[in-house]
Predict the structure.
Amino acid sequence: MKKLLILGQIPKEYGGRYTTGVANVIMELSHCLKKDFEIYIYATNFKSYTIKNIDGIQILGVSYRKILKLVLIEVFKSPWQLIRRFKDNKKKYGVSNLKTLLHFLNLKAYLNKIKPEIVNAHGIIFAPVLKNFDINKNVIYSFHGLMYDDPNSILANKTRGIEIGKLYRESSKFIHRAIFLNEEMKIKGERSLRIEAAKSEVIYNGVNTKKFKFCENSRLEIRKLFGLEETITVFISVGALTHRKNHIGFIEFLLRNNFSGVYWIIGKFEAEETKNKIIEYKDKIKQFKIEIINYVPHNELFKYYSAADLYAHPSTSEGQALVVFEALCCGLPVLVNEEIKSTVSLGKAYTGIVRFVNLKKSFLRQEKQIINRKILSKKCKKDFNWGISAKKYKKVFLDEFN
């Protein structure tokens, strides 16, 4: 059985400090692949300092005591080489010199210990680290978005000390194999970043169809919790509250259309300006109600999807929104900002169920769509289950595609 090392994050319920869409993808994918590979996850957000076996997957911890020891060893062995290797990371790649060094030392130790045949890096942030090892041909990068030219993403990364444009432009030179979420992203990666077409593949994300389903009892339970009668229309959005997710734009769309129901926003605030504006709207608006729900465990989300009537996806840029597929698997019709139409274009089978709107010009149809949510849920589970995507990942990892 080949050893697969995955680089990225893990969800909060598995020991991560926070949950992201990428973290959920990594864990769901790992569960599907563990029967074919011996899986290790180097999770940058893992709270443990030791290696832990979670559901048959080895999660690698980050021990600062161990890193200090590794730093001292490297300094003693080759101080000038270490300085030369990392002094220009900020200038050349737009990332922190110190963080790059720490990840390098940690990964060096794990690579020597595990000796993986395959490395799957979820995000280009690992490229300035991995370029220091002689494993580039064994690394497959999974791109969950190409946000280097998105103003909101540039601003958000700048606050984290990352020059994302520089990171993408320089790091893409070290990428030999890549996985993209859709054809548009693949074309952009090839044309703008010069990632070779012959060594890239398109694989859509999947959904854990055991977790996401329409449940009538959960619908009644959650609506009762919020004191909502069946006649009240509820929109729901799930995702971090950042500029790019554009919750403010959707609130303004609902205001312009004289919406009179409830808008649920599930996610943590990640931008102070966004936080202040949404709270201001929440306090001032009388026309409809805004509910901010900070965190819901991943395996509880289906209850809120079931309780809502429509899913709102107002993002201004996206790789491929996992939440849209989760909502559909819960039998929920979806409203998408037409700016990101290509990232969730699902063909004629979903015409009318997934609708694209211009948030500044379109009009909202106030009547509820008559949809058999159980039938829709069943169809989506067949179309979007992780098993389909995992088989394609397996082929890529075993180098069986042309």
